[in-house]
Amino acid sequence: MGKKQGFLIIAIxxxxxxxxxxxxxxGPLMTQIQHALHMNSLTASLLTAIPVFCMGVFAPLTSTVxxxxxxxxxxxxxxxxxxxxxxxxxxxxxxxxLLISAFLAGVGIAVIGPLLSGFIKEHFPDRAAAIxxxxxxGIGVGATVSAGLSIPLVSTLHSWQASLxxxxxxxxxxxxxxVPVLVADRGFRDxxxxxxxxxxxxxxxxLLLIAFGLQSGIYYSVTTWLAPxxxxxxxxxxxxxxxxxxxxIIQMFSSLVIPMLVHRSNKRTPWLMACxxxxxxxxxxxxxPLAMIGPWIADVFLGIGLGGLFxxxxxxxxxxxxxxxxxxxWTAMMQCGxxxxxxxxxxxxxxxxxxxxxxxxxxxxxxxxxAGLFVCSYFLKPRPxxxxxxxx
Length: 392
Known about the structure:
This protein has helices spanning 3-17, 21-24, 30-37, 41-57, 61-69, 71-88, 95-123, 128-157, 160-165, 168-185, 203-233, 237-265, 269-287, 294-320, 324-356, 360-379, 384-391. The two termini are 19 Å apart. By secondary structure, the protein is mostly helical. It contains 17 helices and no strands. It is found in: Cell membrane.
């Protein structure tokens, strides 16, 4: 690996760190924000719901933005938009500005995700699986660190606005490290491929969309309801938080290791199906009325299963594409529907708990969705031409 590729890997990792803090830094401060801005629960929930839905609704913009600006310049512009969104939070004294910042961050994240997948396909065609693993770990680290440091930053800076705005530093670092990429590549774009369309008429693309939506919906449901479920099992609020943190750590580790193993084995489907099975087992453990040890065992299975599913599903659109531009379009379509689904599933799981008074039935719903993901994984077997290309 040359110095240029090593630098690009570092740049990708740093950019990926900033793709979740605008969302995950909100949760620990939600009560303070509600009291300060006099927001009811429904309005406050929009602070995290808006970016997630934006990640689905605006993902198709990747095609237009990438065509007009070139992928490198478009990535820079999206990182600047995310930085602007977090910078605005220093000056929030009313809910509309905070909601606007959530919207801007969501649009930037929605477009930059598929663009980075295309960038990886273009620059690392033979190592895409391993680089996707690094990209996934960066997302996980950014999410975990921002959530974990939100309250300590309030104590240090004496302001929840400053705590939220601090993550502008990550965006600024991303912009700085991306400048040499712009200078070196001038934005890669094949004019003959410009103005391409998302593969809405391709059945396999729809299968990827459904699989990603199921995975994403399960993941966001687990991150939303795993801690409350642990509390129902008998854990204190602090203990339930540790259960969720343990899941996040295992999930991050799996996001790095499993893509590397996938890259070495040169096979996708067996790993995808195995991760789906691990997820089914973990969700079933949450759905059953087990003793206090249950959540810890579930952490292991869920961390491995969901930690592997996300990067593998990011790899699959790259297998379908021959260029970075095409990879961005496949990824944009997959994430468009997937993130919209991910916004609905946690709400449905919550509604089931409201109706039954227990999270057990909510997790049985997730077991059913994971079983559907297992079936989708079987039908995502590579075509003969793809296997030939990998061997080469």
